[in-house]
Amino acid sequence: ATCGHGCKYGECMGPNKCKCFPGFTGKTCNQDLNECGLKPRPCEHRCMNTHGSYKCYCLNGYMLMPDGTCASSRTCAMENCQYGCEEVKGQVQCLCPSGGLQLGPNGRTCIDIDECSTGKAVCSYNRRCVNTFGSFYCKCQLGYELKYTSGRYNCVDVNECVTNTHRCNLHAECLNTQGSFQCKCKQGYQGSGFDCA
To answer: How far apart are CA 123 and CA 115, in angstroms?
Structure first.
């Protein structure tokens, strides 16, 4: 079986036919499935979609059970947690629905961890880290675009000279470089390449 466009989060089952891993969708399995929008909903109270999965959390005064349901808890109600709580050995702890969130100084609300500035996020050399609430993702560096080549997705240099996205002067030549471009005034002209006289 060959899939010309590849199967990013899945496997090739037939000519250009992908079988997606759980949590992913699309013709090439490259899109995250929003489980929170499914019917029936996977969580009783609140649902947070994550990359390839989801997390359940409860309204204040309720405790998250292993099956995703929420059970009323008088001790939880007294804690006044932003995203519900759990009881561990008689101790009540507030919960955050994602590993990219941490309990704030008050122990009840969740604050975002900036994985990009703390160094927790690792992106390959030609990708940059973009922080999101509760998570992060790796995006191609400026001057690169995401393309499917040699059986996988890679950030490939954009040739600004070919795509005509350069800002070189009419009397200058465009020279492509990795992730960027340079402008050089043509023979008989002088200047920066952006301005030639």
So the answer is: 11
